[in-house]
Design a protein that fits this description.
The chain has eight helices and seven strands. The chain is of the alpha/beta class. It has two domains: 47 residues, no CATH class; 157 residues, Trna Endonuclease, Chain: A, domain 1. The strands form two sheets. A five-stranded mixed sheet has the order 3-4-5-6-7, with helices on both faces. A two-stranded antiparallel ribbon has the order 1-2. The C terminus is likely disordered.
Amino acid sequence: EEKLHTLETGDLITQGSSNFRYRGIEDDILDFIFRSLYEEEIHQKRPNIAAELTASVTAFLKKENQSLKGALNELKGRMLELVVYRELNQYRKRAKPIENFRQRFRPISNAAKMEEMLRACSESRFDMIWMNYYLAVPQTTALEIDVLAEGEDADSCWALAFELKNRDDKNPPNMTEAQLFVTKIKRVKQWLAQKGTTIKFVCPVYLSAKGFEPSIEAWLHEQGVLTADRESWEGKEIGLKLDK
């Protein structure tokens, strides 16, 4: 019992529910040490502790690497949101429409269908700009809009809504994400309808830094969604900011 107390004092074992019950502490390194000393004697098989340690460290580093990549991608996405938000906010402060708005998008498969919306949005000013805005409509679940701009006058109101994805060209937006954004736009229209004035337009923009799969982009155009990439929206300037 004195020897057991000594091991407990050395943090090698812990006492259980009585003085006669002890168990080893949960420590992977101690497990490796004891197994290297006694496993061959107990199970007649010598463990390869070095290989197990290498595999354990490799798995840990791989998990950490994936976590860091995820954090980096999220940070890049937030930076893209911030760049768009700050630019729109500058036009808000100057009380001017967005400069060169019509030229900022990728080729539109049904341009004639969007012409009226493009013209109206390019001529309109926006009084309020939000980033990561949680849109709450009664009896619905709140949805986050990456960047939302809203304007109004005595007779009508309007909005510009962005979805922004900053990924590499191997991981463009998928159909599920595209459909979710279209759902968000329906909520934006419901949100504006609560004002009780005429909705002049709701202009949705999906900005994917490295572009889209052709079928996804064509579907977005069919839903009345404008598409942009990093270069089309602001040329190489955004890319330089994000690379820094």
